[in-house]
Amino acid sequence: MTGKRRRTLGLVGLALVWALVAAGCGADEKPAAPGAPAGERGGVFRTAVEEFNFTGAFDPTGEYLGAAWGYLQALTRTLMNYKHVAGTAGNELFPDLAADKPQVSPDGLTYTFKLKQGVKFGPPLDREITSKDIEYAFSRINNKALTAQYGFYYTVIKGLDTKATSIGDIEGIETPDDKTIVFHLTQPTGDFLYRLAMPATTPIPQEVAKCFTKPGDYGRFVISSGPYMIAGSDKLDASSCGAMKPISGFDPTKKLNMVRNPNYDQATDDLRSNFVDGISVTINTNTVDIFNRVQAGQLDSNYSSKPPRTVLAQYLTNPDKKKLLHSNSGDRTWYLYFNLLTPPFDDVHVRKAVNFVIDKAAMQQAWGGATGGRIATHIMPPEMLNNKLNESYDPYASPDHHGDEAKAKEEMKQSRYDSNKDGVCDHASCKNLLMVNRNTAPWTDAEPVVVESLKKLGIGVRPRELESSYDTIQIVKNMVPIALNAGWGKDYADPYTFASPLFESTSIIAEGNNNYALVGITQQQVQEIGIKAPSSGLPPSVDADIASCLKLPAVTPEEADARIDCWANFDKKLMEEIVPWAPYLWESVNTITNPSVTKFEFDQFAGLPSFTQIAVNNKVNANTLT
Amino acid sequence: MWRYIVRRLMWVVVVMLVITLVTYLIFFVLSPSDPAVAFAGRQPTPEIVAEVSRQFGLDKPVYVQYALFVKRLFLGDEYGWPGLGFSFTTRSPVRDLLIDRFAVTAQLAFGAALIWLAIGIPIGVASAIKRRSLIDRLSMGFALFFVSAPVFWLGLMGLWLFWFKWHVSPGTGYVAIGESFTSWFGHMIMPWTVLALLYAAFYARMTRGNLLETMAQDYIRTARVKGLPEWKVIFKHGLRASLTPVVTMIGLDLGALFGGAIVTESVFNLQGLGQWAIQSVFNDDLPSILAVTVVLALAIAIANLIVDIVYAYLDPRVRYT
What we know:
heterodimer, A: alpha+beta, 21 strands, B: mainly alpha, 14 helices
């Protein structure tokens, strides 16, 4: 069919659809999620990204990229899930496939869920989702070959150790009937419900997935359990493994198109509004072109692309455009870390002094001002702690966040690296320190601020801007004393996802390490990795603090409150006693929309625009998505 | 001549092996980081890293990995021939990605080549014939401008003007010729032109210089004295000899474009080999890096061979044994 005839037919089809919609308007309106402002139904949400960058080829079992979780939120459902809205409301959990919150045993070791009726897989399947489908997802997580990249979150389930050599039953998961699933844990895990909201736990149909035994292979065949399906899923021949060809709507080098799942019943879903008929994500390697297309109306918004400075400036300085710029907390902290084994940062007074002296306001300016994010005054973003600990808690406060040289020097005087007690480091270990950084803005713009701030304390750093800056700091043997390129965002809305990877001693590994400060490193680890411990001794451990907060339940609001209080106190201990970092920014995620977006919403879980709550009026026909 | 060609082809194989060996050393041995870590998620455990390493074949000694790579390259693998493995990033067969990307780059390179020859050579000829005239000065001004203007700037200016402001171009992206010829042409004309303008400038200057030199030769004077019309003197005698170096350059430039049109491909969102090379390096996608290296080395080597053969045809004084 030629392009011209296809366009003509498309227009006729669109007119027919529009006429039908106009005739039925109001009579057949599907209910929006309770509490959500109504949006216009229809159209296709169109966006673009430079590349997908999937870590697990979009296979829900292994995929560990935040943006991928955003796409999977439109395609899949889990036992518990979020409303995919912004702020603390977006970090709140609700039953999704589960009919209600689970029954939890008094010892916190058994979780029993009843599933909703009438929730089906999308085409080519047409059957109800059962407890066995959810159990199968866990069996895949447990299979070593499928490389579940965050499978460690589920090793609290009895019999699940992610080392199984085949896909089989798990001792700690029972499915007494099709609508009941029971989890038996090895230890109380207060954030277990959050872990059940992660995409790896989405129900997976064995009849399709059994054909894909290599990691990532299932990624081009993801069967929907949510409001949308990959375009072309209805044409997938699932009659045998050999017959299956990749679903046309997903090509990892070109596009991801999603259309409504015809088997989805909105009545079973209180969390998602699903205004748009389709979602189109295309690859565009030219970042500026993405934003030009948003402005021209060929795209409705950017997705994971950061707006370049010039584009941001256009929108910030033009009152008509400013309302099209949306800034939301990304639940991510950017920070300077200190290697606690490396002089002079093995002295807590030096670390505290740096926290006092850093000009955070200037660093925020390097990030684009308030649009770039809020100045971070402690480790965890306020939304992670339900705003119980926010900007008002600032243990290293300074006038207008420009740094307080006097207080910094007072702190430095208490350090052993200031022998003449003049507030300036006079030890050789303060000179010529390697500081690793990224080689792009805004980190390169923030770098001179850090260099000059540290100079006031007599700390001289030698910045190295590297494309491979993350690889460098993740190799413990490199013993990088200080770095500017580090940042961390949550996996799910419980502070454990900050605490464990960043500060737990068991998280320290020779390569791929995220506990850059080496908090809690043991003598055995020092020897195994082959590094040198300072004469002052090893850094303190916070493992016990993490364990005590982790086991606190969070099923009732009161329990959740108490758990948050525990984490808030943990944050304070880190900032005031351990001082592994000088956090400087809670980054904002900036989205620029076209006026075609009539209702914008941000998904706090994915940290990106919310596919299931956004509405557009572009009248694009979803049938054009293939 | 055939013996010469066979000998050169054998040398191509040797060159390819050397280049792939050096690439292997750079990315597999000298790399500061383990790519298995990059693909083990953001909280990798030693077990996951080990498993990913095994899946990627990185757990074997480097010389074994290289030997397997060479064997699969020549004999094929589970995905077909040539055996290039699977992409670490997409888990798709590299061979399939290579075919897709090669097609895009080939269209970009050949289309641009046609345009730069169509623009550059006539300008060079006109400039040489009308030396020191207004035409000559304008032509060399054109050449200077487009040699100096960065390709990315030309591309972005072109997009801003023809797509954003005047809406006469469909903008960035690639549409396969089978989907719609007009859409394909509409998407390709701007990247062709942007890429071609730089080369057209070079070729205009080169053609002008070569033609001026040739036209000063004795045999040209003889041709004129014999009473040949001027146009025959220029086009039949002068141009043929002066285009020989141009032929050499075309071959080398086309060969280089197969891995080097990174800027044009990125600006215009054409998913070709150059852009793939950059993405693969940034993503530590080693099989893809190797595949692009193989293709680029082969393209340049084959281009050199073709140029040498054509050279022998154009210049009877050149003979190979």
